[in-house]
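Technical appendix A lists one of the benchmark inputs used to test multi-chain prediction within the project. The record comprises two sequence entries:
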Amino acid sequence: MTAKIYQFLADHQPDTPCLIVDLDVIAENYNALNRYLPTARVFYAVKANPAPEILGMLGRLGSSFDTASRPEIEMVLAEGVTPDRISFGNTIKKERDIAWAFARGVDLFAFDSEAELEKLARSAPGARVFCRLLMTCEGADWPLSRKFGCEADMARDLLVRARDLGLEPYGISFHVGSQQTRLDQWDIAIGKTAMLFTELNAAGIELKMINLGGGLPAHYRDEVAPVGDYSNAIMNAMTKHFGNNLPLMIVEPGRSLVGDSGILEAEVVLIARKSYEDAVRWVYLDIGKFGGLAETMDEAIKYRLQVPGDGDCGPVVLAGPTCDSADILYEKNQYSLPMSLKVGDKIRILATGAYTTTYAAVNFNGFAPLKAYYV
Amino acid sequence: MTAKIYQFLADHQPDTPCLIVDLDVIAENYNALNRYLPTARVFYAVKANPAPEILGMLGRLGSSFDTASRPEIEMVLAEGVTPDRISFGNTIKKERDIAWAFARGVDLFAFDSEAELEKLARSAPGARVFCRLLMTCEGADWPLSRKFGCEADMARDLLVRARDLGLEPYGISFHVGSQQTRLDQWDIAIGKTAMLFTELNAAGIELKMINLGGGLPAHYRDEVAPVGDYSNAIMNAMTKHFGNNLPLMIVEPGRSLVGDSGILEAEVVLIARKSYEDAVRWVYLDIGKFGGLAETMDEAIKYRLQVPGDGDCGPVVLAGPTCDSADILYEKNQYSLPMSLKVGDKIRILATGAYTTTYAAVNFNGFAPLKAYYV
């Protein structure tokens, strides 16, 4: 809880649920990351929170931007950012969106398949392209499945083919999984990437860039290592695998820049027990899985809570306000809240600056999407 | 695929992804349900699809409405429906919303806990209230967890307390789980309810209403019994447990009224393999879990697909277009699609009239919410 957020809540007492984001925290996180990884160029992952206030501020601080779609590119351009600071980082793009972006001056594209490469060759001729490697993501709270990336031997062949199609084979990207807590995962991924650099060199292709993706954590319920530890792990692995010949490094932080900047205020709508024998109270909030807390899916992200009162605590199930029975936040990961908690109390959900506002359903059960304030 | 939807797609060739709903199908489903369950009053579960076109048409046909929130009540009232045809069916309500609804003439409220009953007594004095029973929901594709309802002995005590607080203890509700495929679940639930009627009678309280909830299925990938079989199962159980003294019956269909009325057209954005050894193709559509197909969560609802081409088929993983690795539709439930499928092809996702439009995220990854047309 920062002083600015505290002041805003005290002054405005906004209707709940609402998210308050402190832009200064994001600026600090951005500056800290630049200090920790001075050799890396920061591409903010717009999907984490595309609020114009955030994009504008990071643009003025000099950040580049990783975008997932044409509308995200439009939002970044609208803040006065030049297209050379934009990466179209989604490996799944409609060809007409590639052509549109290329016409606007965007010149850096992700891919992980032959079909995507062919679209790029047709609709963004000569563009810089990077291939995403498939990683296993062990240790990530929000792991990445096999949806993105391809195996290393296919990546090598595709980068050769990129050259043959008239594109510029620019680099390799990977993602170790969002909220990754195992530092050794970067060593594995960077080692794999360095091997590909060597193999492609033998084929006459000099890759220039390694895109380390995101994965740096925000601070949820469990303790995480400080960003400095992550940066050290990354730089040690870079030096170990690339020696003195470091390629251009790109990082794509989303969660680690904006996650900690936001506090979500919610109201306790109901506290109930299901039977007389039940030790567990059900605590229903006015926000749930469909109102912005989608990352509680399978209880993946475990937010910290700030609740009024103290004294004895007891186990609770936390759930949202909709008539959807899947709208439960935490049932298996038992949370414990004061026995004195009552209907109407305000609860603050910490580190909710990332992956909340845009995850909110458009009108599910009639509930409006999450309202957000940027201070 | 109805003739009207076919014609609309041919005439307008709308941008994908989009949902086309045939209102005639909904009217037919509504009329059929009234024929099958002539003694029951239909309360359409607005949350399934709150489009004004649907609410208006069902209102004119004489339907009543089950609502989850103040905005849903406002939408129904805006279609000229009188408040005596509205049930505020969410057991989790802010007290100010109860007061607002009561002031508008809504007089029928759900509850399942003492705290909710106290809110109702204060803010809707004298209103008709019904208590929701906790059911186990075996056999439901979208089961209901323990989020709603309370155990039978608590329900009995709460209905007695409702009377003591000056409310009218009106009835019992339950929900056997959405897309329920086991017909015997209704017998169990109706039997439990009848026992409560008897027990409360002994306490001097004559309940008037049994709310059978929803749970009637739409037609997804697996075959389901026709609505007639469900109606028979329900009426047999009603007669078995209540004899000639049938209470007022309420049903709250959502999925079974509107599910089959909608067809979602999507485009194949990319087809890729992850490695050379991989037999499975990844097929990426321009709609996914966050664009309206949220019910593919844990692969619960298995939609039928209509794709161009025929000939040999092979296994696919179906995924959405966002950079979110959780945005996968079907990976474990293997779908098989023609080997001739190609990027740019249109795919039609059937029976998507329910729980799609309002589940869409507001702007996730920059993608606009699902566009829908009602014809």
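The CA atoms of residues 92 and 116 of chain A lie 7 Å apart. Chain A touches chain B through 81 residues (CB under 8 Å). Comparable benchmark entries are summarised in Table A2.
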